Automatic annotation (TrEMBL):
Biological-process GO terms, alphabetical: terpenoid biosynthetic process
Cofactor: a divalent metal cation
Quaternary structure note: Homotrimer.
Main location: plastid
GO MF: 2-C-methyl-D-erythritol 2,4-cyclodiphosphate synthase activity; metal ion binding
GO CC terms of this entry: chloroplast
Gene source species: Perilla frutescens var. hirtella (Perilla citriodora)
Group of enzyme by EC: lyase
Family classification: Belongs to the IspF family.
Name of the protein in question: 2-C-methyl-D-erythritol 2,4-cyclodiphosphate synthase
Keywords, comma-separated and alphabetical: Chloroplast, Isoprene biosynthesis, Lyase, Metal-binding, Plastid, Transit peptide
Region spans: Disordered: 1-25
Length: 235
């Protein structure tokens, strides 16, 4: 899904505990490989002031119009927890990519990007833990530049934002829900790639998979979903 283009105007996001305000570039969950994302910097204030200042320079990429976004209240807590959820339709004629691994199947995710339900979900969990807008706001699927994008780009950006905010991954627990194909032969490859993208030790990255008991779209092989919970801790 996404084709790179240059960002027109600088991005500035500032929040305070009193009057939070933020301006994000229109950004979507599916990004091109050579795409350079806007740089957002998190500057922690002294502990007496819990407000976090986020300043992004859009020297890059995203080329979207700045828009009013959700205020961030990224208080410097010792721990922050985040939850992510994603679901995609499965349609014939698309590759099935899960966690960056191409899984042989008779159908794949119809999506603006590469439709990697697991990576989207993990990105959303990290962004959520940081108190940032979700992946759909940062990388809008209405933007043609994200068409066919490799979701690893979103992961790289989420991990970068996490480190800039002064946090690192404590642990991650993800659950994939799909009726077919069986994921057990691919689980370790998916988990290994997830660890690589996160820069995390395998002992803190857990991946589970289950069916949907043949009910609803998930159980009828018409969709795939994922849930992720992450715990971040302050460096
Ligand atoms: Zn998605």
């Amino acid at each position: 899904m996404a084709m790179a283009s240059s960002l027109a105007s600088p991005l500035h996001i500032k929040t305070s505990s009193k009057q939070p305000s933020a301006h994000f570039p229109g950004v979507a969950p599916c990004v091109p490989r050579n795409l350079q994302l806007p740089s957002m910097k998190f500057t922690a204030r002294p502990s007496s002031s819990p407000a976090l200042v986020i300043v992004g320079s859009a020297a890059s990429t995203v080329g979207a119009e700045p828009q009013s976004g959700t205020a961030t209240s990224a208080k410097l807590l010792p721990f922050r927890v985040g939850h992510g959820f994603d679901l995609h339709r499965l349609e014939p004629g698309y590759p099935l990519i899960i966690g960056g691994i191409n899984i042989p199947h008779d159908r794949g995710c119809e999506a603006h990007s590469d439709g990697d339900v697991l990576l989207h979900c993990v990105v959303d969990a990290i962004l959520g833990a940081l108190g940032l807008p979700d992946i759909g706001q940062i990388f809008p699927d209405t933007d043609p530049k994200w068409k066919g994008a490799a979701s690893s780009v979103f992961m790289e950006e989420a991990v970068r934002l996490m480190h800039e905010a002064g946090y690192e991954l404590g642990n991650l627990d993800a659950t994939l829900i799909l009726q077919r194909p069986k994921l057990s032969p691919h689980k370790e490859a998916i988990r290994a790639n997830l660890c690589k993208l996160l820069g995390a030790d395998p002992s803190v990255v857990n991946l589970k998979a289950k069916t949907h008991e043949k009910v609803d779209s998930l159980g009828e092989n018409r969709s795939i979903a994922a849930h992720t919970v992450v715990l971040l801790f302050r460096k």
